[in-house]
Structure formats: structure tokens, C-alpha cells
């Protein structure tokens, strides 16, 4: 059975789309995608040629602080979303307890999407 799976995988064309996006939502490098930033910290990457099945997407932040998080979500054959969060621990007074403030933040990032192409 494993040999059959390997033969099927060898005959499936792969599609790879990758790129770099600036914190302002501008494509810095890469091909095969468009990017929009409808609000601060949210980026929508749309593939110019859809995948056959939902791709695997990996992304990393550029020039980020240790308190930032990047989340890849809502991935489908046409697009995916990236949300970037700033996590900050603040203390309003010397007697109060520290609080975690979470807000969306602009940041550049790199990504790669790999999946079955047509």
C-alpha cells in the first residue's frame, strides 16, 4: 500500500507559492499571490491560481519583538489569513497586579504555501 501511495504522490503536481510582505501589506517579493491588509495586523493572502486541496502554510515574522505572535488561519484552496498580535504585560500601579494587553500590530512576514496543484 505504501508503494501505491508513493506512486500517486509522484504523479501529483505540487504547487509552491512563497513571498515576503511588508508591515504595510505590500508584496516585497514572491509571485502567484496578492495581499490585502483590511485592518491593522490582519493580512489576507489570495492565490492567483487556487490549489486543488488545502495547502500547508508556514509563516515567520520579520523584524519582530519577542512579544509578538503570528497566527495563520482560515486557510483554503484560494487564500489564507495572517493575524499578528502584540502581547504586552503592563502594571498600572505598584500595588496592582500585572495585566496582559493583547492587540493587533503591523509587522512584515515571510510565508510559504505548499500543496497539490492542477
Question: Mind explaining what this structure looks like?
Answer:
By secondary structure, this protein is mostly beta strands. Helices cover 8% and strands 53% of the residues. The chain has one helix and nine strands. The strands form two sheets. Strands 3, 4, 6, 7 and 8 form a five-stranded antiparallel β-sheet that branches. The chain has a four-stranded antiparallel β-sheet with strand order 2-1-9-5, with no helix packed on it. A hairpin with an 8-residue loop joins strand 7 and strand 8 (99-104).
The value of Rg in angstroms is 18 Å
Return the CATH architecture.
Sandwich
Q: Domains counted in the coordinates: how many?
A: 1
Element order: H for helix, E for strand: HEEEEEEEEE
Strand residue content: over 45%
Mean pLDDT comes to 89
Principal-axis shape: elongated
* Unreliable parts: none
Largest sheet geometry = 5 strands, antiparallel
The count of strands amounts to: 9
What is the count of helical runs? 1
Tell me the span between the first and last alpha carbons: 24 Å
CATH T-level fold name: Immunoglobulin-like
CATH top-level class: Mainly Beta
Fraction in helix: under 10%
What structural class do helix, strand and pairing data support?
mainly beta
Amino acid at each position: 500500500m505504501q508503494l501505491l501511495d508513493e506512486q500517486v504522490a509522484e504523479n501529483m503536481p505540487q504547487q509552491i507559492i512563497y513571498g515576503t510582505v511588508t508591515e504595510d501589506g505590500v508584496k516585497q517579493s514572491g509571485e502567484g499571490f496578492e495581499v490585502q491588509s483590511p485592518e491593522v495586523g490582519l493580512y489576507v493572502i489570495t492565490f492567483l491560481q487556487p490549489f486543488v486541496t488545502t495547502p500547508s502554510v508556514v509563516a515567520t515574522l520579520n523584524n519582530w519583538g519577542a512579544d509578538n505572535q503570528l497566527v495563520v488561519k482560515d486557510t483554503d484552496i484560494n487564500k489564507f489569513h495572517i493575524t499578528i498580535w502584540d502581547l504586552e504585560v503592563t502594571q498600572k500601579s505598584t500595588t496592582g497586579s500585572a495585566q496582559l494587553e493583547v492587540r493587533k500590530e503591523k509587522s512584515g512576514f515571510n510565508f510559504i504555501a505548499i500543496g497539490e496543484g492542477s
